[in-house]
Amino acid sequence: MKKITLILTTTVVVMCAFCSIIFNSCKKKDIEYNETTLIRPCEGVVCLNGASCSDGVCICPKGFEGNKCQIKWSDKFTGNYTAVDDCNAVGNPAYSVNITGNPDYAYKIRMYNLGLICTGKMIEAVIDPEKTSFYIPVQNTCGNQYLSGSGNISGDYINIYLTARDTVAHTGTECSIILTKLP
User: What are residue 177's DSSP bridge partners?
Assistant: First the structure.
């Protein structure tokens, strides 16, 4: 009877050891995150306005900036301004200019009533990536006048250099305009 007990005890011990190996190897292990395994730097990162996340940082589309791409480039330029230009030979009277963002493109602005050449019209400008300057592509704003130019912002002031070309009279006028932002 001793031999049977010994064999049975040995068999049970071996079986238990085998079962322990099988069941413990199937146990779910906790995942550890470190420099070499399963890094998910964009997990939980919220990027706005069509931005994408790369290595935990939002990559903004053209026209947006900020840690979540929540700021439009045009926001820096929008507002109401008082303008003075050198195009008017009679006393350079001040006039009002309004700048808004383009609702379709965050990197464009719309300037209303800019310059005494073609008053009351809208001129569109494209903001450069450094967000301190813009250019005015050639555009027909009123009648036979084609306008183009550039500008830059410094604090509450915008300096604009505008060129108007009359396609009928074949003449051109250049203007320097200073906009002062109103509170």
Answer: 85, 160
Mean model confidence pLDDT for the chain:
83
Dihedral over alpha carbons 183, 124, 85, 148 (to 10 degrees):
160
Inter-residue contact 86 to 65 (CB < 8 Å):
no
42 burial level (CB within 10 Å; 0-12, 13-18, 19+): middle
CA angle 22, 28, 31 (to 5 degrees): 140
CA–CA dist 23, 17 (Å, integer)? 10
Tokens 């383009």 — which residue? 102
Q: Which residues pair with 54 in a beta bridge?
A: 57
> Quick one: DSSP state of residue 76?
G
pLDDT digits (tens, 9 = 90+) for 55-107: 999 999 999 999 999 999 999 999 999 999 887 656 668 899 999 999 999 99
Residue found under tokens 């250049």:
174
In sequence order, which residues have a C-beta less than 8 Å from that of residue 69 and are 6 or more positions away? 47, 48, 49, 50, 51, 58, 60, 61
Entry pTM: 0.74
C-alpha–C-alpha distance, residues 87 and 93, integer Å: 10
